[in-house]
Amino acid sequence: METTTPLLPSNESPSSSLAAVPEEEDYLPAASQTFRDFIKNVFWRETVKLWKIAGPIALSLICQNGTNILTSIFVGHLGNLQLSAVSVSLSVIITFCFGFLLGMGSALETLCGQAFGAGQVHMLGIYLQRSCFILLVTCVILLPIYIFAAPLLKALGQDAELAALAGKFTLLAIPNLFSWAIYFPTQKFLQAQRKVGVITWIAIVALILHAFWLWLFIYEFDWGITGAAVAFDLTGWLIALAQAAYVMGWCKEGWRGFSWSAFKDIWSFVTLSLASAVMLCLEIWYMMSIVVLTGHLDNAVIAVGSLTICLNINGLELMLFIGINAAISVRVSNELGLGHPEAAKYSVYVTVLQSLVIGLVCMAVVLVAKDYFAYIFTSSKVMQVATSKLAFILAITMVLNSVQPVISGVAIGGGWQALVAYINIGCYYVFGLPLGFLLGYKANLGVEVCFNLLYFFLTKYKVRMRTSH
């Protein structure tokens, strides 16, 4: 792995703040160590460092993703149309905007991680405010997509009744959109300083309250999908405001109040943010494209519903690996900030190996439970049978997806977002989607092919591995 120049202002000295990371020597090359020493001094140390960050983040992400899953579960028992409509809203319109804002926020992960590793903790608050401002403007730009969701979905070929109901849910979810302008920057700010425990506790409390609000609004107040949207908005703002309160109240070294400096060098920050957004959006929007393609199939309500159930299961595993993604991003950016290329390299090797093992375990669980996991989401026997037919493909995908987010985390930590964006375009959109369209529609192979498009995560992983050496 090549040594990468940290993306920090050259006029800032590490001595301008207290050292954020205890100074350690870089690892010795593997060839100069015995196997036992390597396990003790490298593998075990990297495992502990990884999971101290990844464990709480993954748990918090699972809880946060659980808001979408719980929403689908509660709505799914209202009927197949309601399940498919809310699924299309969450998977297409909301995911489109979520992916873009997540990508824009990931620039903060690069800059805060390297600043923290280099001891420039005072810069974190400036970067945080700059990111919040940029994301707020981005939310305003994305707002028409929410407002015109129903006609957009119809233009994409979705069933008219399904599109109308999905558009209604999306309109009601507009408040949630603006919560992300606070949520993503504050989350990245805390992750870069390894203050992930508070993120986890906030997410756990929010998930419990979300379940209560769904039950209250959908069943007790009989608001239907309107109640689901209200609960969705409340939960999003609860998480965002709780994280912001912690940053301003308990992170005094990184947060030193509002500053006009946040509005300096906006364009360079936007450039890095856009590169991050393109890289992550091309991954997340790929999932969205699969749902859109599925909506064109015969019996679209069942096809979209069964695919969405599988994507929700896949999403639970993916949240674990996105937690690892965030952790390896912090590890790589911190070590590069300290000038430790060997430590950055070995942290990648250890993380990839452990991720693959976890993926194999998840595959086994899906195969064992293939006839049962759909019961959680729906009472419809037709939907349950359709979902079980996708279980084998889902199981294979669990393995293929286990390593890909890790490599994305390395790219973010090293500031290599633009290169990965080009790789994503080729693997997903030049090769994957056109092939899926031909097999799904011209060869009439249906939703199995649409879900099988997820296999192309493996293609991208192989390409990325070659570029990382």
UniProtKB/TrEMBL annotation:
It is found in: Membrane. Keywords: Membrane, Transmembrane, Transmembrane helix. The chain crosses the membrane at residues 53-75, 81-102, 132-153, 165-184, 196-218, 224-246, 266-288, 300-328, 348-370, 390-412, 419-439, 445-463. It is a multi-pass membrane protein. One of its GO terms (cellular component) is membrane. Belongs to the multi antimicrobial extrusion (MATE) (TC 2.A.66.1) family. PANTHER family: MULTIDRUG RESISTANCE PROTEIN. This is Protein DETOXIFICATION. It comes from Salix koriyanagi.
